[in-house]
Amino acid sequence: MAEMNENVITFEKIKFAYPGTDGVWALNGIDLTVKKGEFLSVIGHNGSGKSTLARLINGLLEADSGKIEVLGMNVAEGKNPLEIRKHVGIVFQNPDNQMVASIVEDDVAFGPENIGIKREEIGERIEWALKAVGMEAFRHSTPSRLSGGQKQRIAIAGVLAVKPEILVLDESTAMLDPKGRREVIEVIKRLNEEEGMTVILITHFMEEALLADRTVVLNRGEIVLSGTPEEIFENGDKLEAYNLCLPRITEIVNSLNRGGMSVKNVLRAEELADSIKENFKNKGIFDAVSSPVDDEEINSAHEWDIDVNNLTFTYSRKSPFASKALNGINLHIDEGEFFGIIGHTGSGKSTLVQHFNALIKLPQAEKKYRKKRVKKGQTPPILPEIKIGGYDLTQKKCDFRKLRADVGMVFQYPEYQLFAESVFADVAFGLKNFNKELTSEQVEEAVKSSIEMVGLDYNEIKDKSPFDLSGGQKRRVAIAGVIVTKPKILILDEPAAGLDPLGKKEIIALLHKLHKEWCRTVIIVSHDMDEVAENCTKAVVISNGQAVLCDRPYKLFSQSETLRELGLDVPLTSKVSEELAKAGITVECNCTSEDFTRKVLEIYGGGNA
Question: pTM score > 0.70 for this model?
Answer without folding.
Answer: yes
